[in-house]
Amino acid sequence: MKRTLMLFAAFAALGAYAVSWKGLADANWYSGPKITEADLAGKVVMVDKWGVNCPPCRALLPKMQDVWQSFKNKNFILLGSHCQGRSEAKVKELVKTNKLTFPIYDWAGLAEGEPSSRGIPFLYVVNHRGKVVYSGHNHNMAIEAVQAAILALDLPPTLLGDVVLEKRSPYKTFEKQLVLGKNISAVVKRLEKDVKNAEKRAAKQSDKDNAEVAAKILAAIEEARREIPAEIELKKNSNPEDALELLINYSKTFPKDSVELKKQIPELRKAAAEWKKAEKAKEAESKKRK
Fold this sequence. Notes:
The protein is an alpha/beta fold. Helices cover about 50% and strands about 10% of the residues. α3 links the parallel β3 (about 45-50) and β4.
């Protein structure tokens, strides 16, 4: 069963990482709002790799503008990444013709872990935790990935990560338990026990198969344990109310890791109250203008 444990270690090693972006310097900018790495932090990002000499790319631009208009107010950034040589005049002509308002840069995108493509137009979607959740040439599938990623912004983080449990899986009932805010100690003990038992010589193949799934779940839990504190930090400024709720739920699920984090609760409660008051004032002012 060494293979299962090696898999567990490999999956666990995929934990949180710092997302970095390339091509956002002023020298790379073509049009639209200028953005920085800080502007992309904690947001859902769709990257559209395209070129002025690519007919399918040009045909897709109006649809990309529609995507931008639909989601730009929902913690979403559409990043146009031109990748057919510096062509300022041609790019600006297409921007004007298609009335494009999303940010367009030259060769912008993930600095590390960017999906490879064999052609353009090529799209990929990065969720608010910096994970690529779609990459390919199908813009409809990319839009679906954006919608799912935006929806996930307001949902309690699942501790299953990308693990999909089949109906017959002995761990299927754990889905409702493996949610941030719940005590998962009993579930973790069961998973660890199954991994250990599968190492025995008398272990059946079904035990080994189950242990492999258990190892993946444990790795996903470990990844969440490391990633969520970073998400709390990101939300402190953008939405301290969400940050507070996330911190409280995290402390319930990972109490041993929350000793220092819990010290921030009083300050976050105050910040959340002030933020909520400011948001209500903005909403009231917006209604007056209408």
